[in-house]
Amino acid sequence: MLPNLQDRNETIAIFSDYGGEHSASKYNTYSFLIVAYSQLQRFQDKMLELRRQFGLDSPFKEIAYKRLDHGPTRRILEPYLVMAQNLINGLVLTVVVEKDIESLFVEGKLSHSQVMSDALAQIGMSYLKPAVAEKLFRVIHYLSFLVTLLSKEDQKVFWMTDHDSIAANPERFADALSYFCRVLGHYSDKRYALVGGAVPFEEKDSSFLDLLSIPDLVGGAIENYFTSKSRSLDDQFLVKSGSDVILKWLVHQGVGLKKHTMMICRDDVGVRASTLKFDLMEPLTDAKFIPVYV
User: Which is nearest to 161 in space by CA: 145, 172, 148, 149?
Assistant: First the structure.
């Protein structure tokens, strides 16, 4: 099930965050929230109320996966996620990739190094290390696929990514944005009114950060789940407090927000991609199902 981001919407906005880069992780996660930006006013207004209710407005506190041990952040988590799935028209997609897979674009270490070097030279980004270049290529191709799939001609496109290695400074982010425009043209011949982007502003702005928090939370919880699972000898293992709330949230589709997860891993045949579906051991007793007619 995919959202309709074309009708009554001037701007497609994508917020991306990435997890699993710590040494203990066995997976990288690439999480994207793509939304109808012109339809966000009700969500943003309700979030201001929710922040005041839980004391996260003054001083401003970001709702972040790494802060789930902070009391108010942990308490706001569930109502925040429920509000997001009901009031945001969009899609959250998370791609989980085994770290054993060095590249999704090239087979073989020797050829990988040469191909990456040549590709970076073509786009004027030879300063990137191979691992950062691989990450950039993955992110940009996922972005381009999502925008092409869900957009229409003449819409505006806005991308916000968290501060990290592919956007380490304004110059590098400008190069990444330029590369996004270039790759987007390979996926579709649609003409967009504008393609732009930003990293989080120095002055904290909840209207953007409360959207960027969704891929941060989802990517963090999914990475934590699979890394914990890979270390366990059976199905009994612990996840970080708060991850359970996020994983349960992924079980059901929202009224407005759709949720999809896929995994790319290596098996005896080669590299395989599959869709992941989260299920509960026992059904929710208080779930409300709303029929959506298409």
Answer: 172
* Peptide bond between residue 3 and the one before it cis (omega within 30 degrees of 0): no
H or E stretch at 208: helix 206-231
Answer for the pair 64, 23: CB distance below 8 angstroms, yes or no.
no
> Regarding the domain with residue range 12-276, which homologous superfamily does it belong to in the CATH classification?
Ribonuclease H-like superfamily/Ribonuclease H (3.30.420.10)
Q: Residue 216 CB: number of other CB atoms within 10 A? A: 24
User: In the prediction, which pLDDT does 11 show?
Assistant: 98
Strands 194-198 vs 156-161: parallel, antiparallel or unpaired: parallel
Condensed to tens digits (0 to 9), the pLDDT of residues 211-245 reads 999 999 999 999 999 999 988 877 788 899 999 99
For residues 68-97, average pLDDT: 97
Residue-range domain boundaries for the chain: 12-276
Give CA 275 to chain center in angstroms: 16
In the chain, the DSSP E strands lie at: 11-19, 27-36, 90-98, 156-161, 194-198, 257-266, 271-276
Residue by residue, what is the 3-state secondary structure of 104-166?
CCCCCHHHHHHHHHHHHHHCCCCCCCHHHHHHHHHHHHHHHHHHHHHCCCCCEEEEEECCCHH
